[in-house]
């Protein structure tokens, strides 16, 4: 056990409450000082969950500023709606609290610059809690790329391909923020799940950076049809025009010559996938059929018979599994999105304990989250290329 960290949890919707019950309360080095949400019933439910886990009941508040004013709080986790992430994060940094910020997309490039400037002014770290960077396959492929197994990386793909029609359509009843975004915005609204692991493989902000993007959206038909078939008694939604395209494709170019394709696909019937794909001069990984293709190996000799070898990732585990996951498998994988949530939370808590910088830092947060604001611009301009700012101000060239 390390030093006990006193934590404040701000935002107790589906994500915040889920993390609290599955992950946070089981970490021995964490004590809950306070929990916060704008809805009182959520505050009480969270406090009860902490008590049921055998911990002292935390303070409950509907005003996050009360948590930021508590001197005993070492760090805060933000699980609020997307539009509140960065403003509250900046206030927390100015109050001297380490910040673990849940994922989403930014609404403007200016707010991304603001959080970078807040870090450079306060030197208080903020970590983007992007759990997908810690996925077993994502970390194994990163390990293979670092060892040169896939050769020179040329192209990567990722997606947030998740049927959210029910969640969006019943947003009012469930007090969920996605609905308003789908009514008013048209963009790559949730970029970091797919981009995070790719950014690590391509060393974004550490010897490489994203230069430009172009983004295009299909028409918005999926939600309207879903509501017509499943919620026809909702007169307001039946007469609502949704701006968010059903499928959004965003192509990003990088300083070192690679390309990235991101796909948002959340309002049509489909299976879940993050579409993680890495292609290099010696091989490729393809998430959708759990396959690795390594040039020169037996399975790669007859390209037309390749489908016989689909789903072969397990054959490579022993040789290429990331050391973090080898140890994790031995110790016992915890709950929370297949174990990813536990790993990202542990890294955050370790950084707070040691008072060190975080593994997914403010420059990563700004770059990855800015894609939403920039894609929105590109779509509005008919798919025109848009420049991606260098939030490191040139430091990416030599950052490790």
UniProtKB/TrEMBL annotation:
Pfam families: GFO_IDH_MocA (PF01408), Glyco_hydro_109_C (PF21252). Its cofactor is NAD(+). This is Gfo/Idh/MocA family oxidoreductase. One of its GO terms (molecular function) is nucleotide binding. The lineage of its organism: Bacteria, Bacillati, Bacillota, Clostridia, Lachnospirales. Keywords: Glycosidase, Hydrolase, NAD. Coiled coil: none annotated. Residues 5-127 form the Gfo/Idh/MocA-like oxidoreductase N-terminal domain. It comes from the Bacteria. Residues 139-307 form the Glycosyl hydrolase 109 C-terminal domain. Belongs to the Gfo/Idh/MocA family. Glycosyl hydrolase 109 subfamily. PANTHER family: BCDNA.GH03377, GLYCOSYL HYDROLASE FAMILY 109 PROTEIN.
